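For the sake of transparency, this paper describes our internal protein records without simplification. Because each token names a local backbone shape, the row as a whole describes the fold. One such record is reproduced below, unchanged from the form in which we store it.
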Amino acid sequence: MQHAISWFEIPTKDLDRATKFYETIFGISLIPLDMENIKMRMFPVEDMANGIGGSLVHSEGFFTPSDSAGVLIYLNGNPDVQLVLDKVEAAGGKIMVPKTQISSEYGFIGVMIDTEGNRIGLHSNPV
């Protein structure tokens, strides 16, 4: 197994609002992918066959955003998680855990609550 994770989905109540939030804090453009019962906005990935992909998802009754229950994923906050955290509140989110060093070997984390009420971690490598 090359990676423990191959795909993740972040639930949304308002897909447009969530898209604006993530595009703002990461400085990226998400890629629309809409199917019959589910709408997605995918995070860009250079090589899906060898990388890890994921998306924001809106599907009535299938997902429930949560700030305390379920899995906690950590998104890539490189080169410095603080650069992402600095944009969270202005974009409509909240900081739950400020930039915190894991160790000199493993870098830094931070945790935010996004505009949809999801608890999402951020990770950056050691400086």
Q: What stands out?
A: Residues 15-26 form the longest helix (12 residues).
